[in-house]
Structures are given as C-alpha cells and as structure tokens.
Amino acid sequence: MTFETIRLERIGPVAKIVLNRPERLNACPPSMAVEICDALSAIGDARAVLLTGEGRAFCSGADLSAVGERSIAGGAGSYKALTQSYNPLILKLSRLPVPLVVAVNGAAAGIGCSLALTGDFTLAAKNAYFLQAFVNIGLVPDGGATWFLPRLIGKARAAQMMMLGERIGAEQAQDWGLIYKAVDDDVLAEEALALATRLANGPTVALGTMRRNLGLALDADLATTLMHEADGQHKAGDSADAVEGVQAFLEKRKPVFTGK
After folding, report:
1. How far is CA 123 from the centre of its chain?
2. Which of 63, 137, 159, 246 has its CA 20 to 30 A from that of 72?
3. Does pTM surpass 0.85?
4. What are phi and psi of 188, to 5 degrees?
C-alpha cells in the first residue's frame, strides 16, 4: 500500500506509522487522517502499533493552509473534515484491538495533541510540548480533546490548556499525568520501540481486552464495569496465551505468548 502523507513500516511484531510531512511539521490535512485509518486497517497480524512523526515535530495540528479538497476553512469545512476524517480516525485509534504507543518527537498541537493522547503509553521527548491552540484563532478544541483532557488531568487543568492556549512541556505533562513518560530526545525512538515490542510480545487478547475495558470504564458505573471485566476474563481465559501463562507459572518459567 502506497501513502502520500505517512509511512507504514513493520518492525517484527510492531506496526510503525510515521506522519511524514516534515516540511509542514506534519500538519494533518483530512487526507492524512484517512491514510492513517487505511494504514491501521492494513497492519495485518501486528500485535502493537507505534505512532510517531518524521522530523522535528509530531503533528502541528490540522493543515489550515490546505486548499481544494484538503481545505478545512470555515465552519462548514471544519465540520466536514471532523465528521468525515478526523473523528473516524480518533475512534479507530481508540478501538484498536492491540496496544498503541505514541512517541511525541516535538510539537503536538491541535489535532496532533488529540492523536498523541489516544496512546495507551505516550512518551515525549523533553523538547516536545502539547498545545491546545484553538483559542488563539477563535476556535474550539476538537478531535476528542474535550473528552480526553479532563479525564487525564482534571477539569481545572483542561480549562487551562484549552482557554489559555499555553504550551505544556513534556516534563510538566508527565507530572500532570497527561502522558506516560518524558525522556531525553536522543532515546525517544529507542524507548518507544522497546516498549511497543514488549507489549507486542505480551498476551495480545488480554491486552486488547484491557484496552477496551479501560475505555468503557470511563463512562460506566461499577456494576457495568464488573460485567465488562467478567466478559473480558471469559474471552481472555479461552485464549492460547492464557493456557501458556498458567502452564509457565506452574513450571516456574517465563511464558512465551503468541498473541492467540
């Protein structure tokens, strides 16, 4: 499969998606969102996904300079781009059946910030930052930011990011609980791949079920969450990896999971 705005690579059991418009700081037109969706549909038997950006930015936001079919100018254009391209991408990322690691190698602004926050584990280079810049141009946060931010960092800090439009550096983002970890710039790629590989070598059915249940629990009561857990345990318990895990425990050895 050929892409114009991204790259799809396979590194062992990990599918790596690279936003590839470095000359535009990986600004994301609707066509890029569509291509990421297509790439996610083409990962085959990959057991984890790693998402990052090419060059000195992760994603500087939607491409406001795009013209023609890529244009999102005006309220109607933005609405169409969100409902037909960006929103389906955010939902597809949130519903992946395998773990998602995001490596933020620079600015993560606007829709780029939302993309970064879909990760189960978001690592950021210490020179990276997160920005809800919408207020600075008279717009409102989108791409799920209004859902992600208060759940990750609380209403007060979400309001700070959205209404003041100030940059939040990687180390502050880690302190707030916005991301998993801030790391030195020169080890970001290595650490992110190592983590994605570790997850890819884990019990895929169980990890995918954990991912689903974590998302469901954010909007469910305790009784509903208990039933989701029971259903998930039923599914995971019937997997080959669960059989291997129990057998390895009994034999006092490290399990070898196959993702089945």
Report:
1. 10
2. 159
3. yes
4. -60, -55
Task: Report how far residue 110's alpha carbon sits from residue 131's, in angstroms, rounded to the nearest whole number.
Answer: 6
Superfamily classification of domain 6-200: 2-enoyl-CoA Hydratase; Chain A, domain 1 (3.90.226.10)
* Two structure tokens written together for 90: 């955010």
- Whether 196 contacts 252, CB under 8 Å: no
What is the C-alpha separation between 108 and 27, in angstroms, rounded?
Answer: 10
Distance CA 116, CA 161 (A): 15
- Whether 52 contacts 189, CB under 8 Å: yes
Q: CA geometry: angle at 118 spanning 116 and 122, to 5°? A: 55
Give the model confidence (pLDDT) of 179-234 as tens digits.
Answer: 999 999 999 999 999 999 999 999 999 999 999 999 999 999 999 999 999 999 99
The rounded distance, in Å, linking the Cα atoms of 171 and 169 is 6
Kind of pairing, strands 107-109 and 100-104? Answer: unpaired
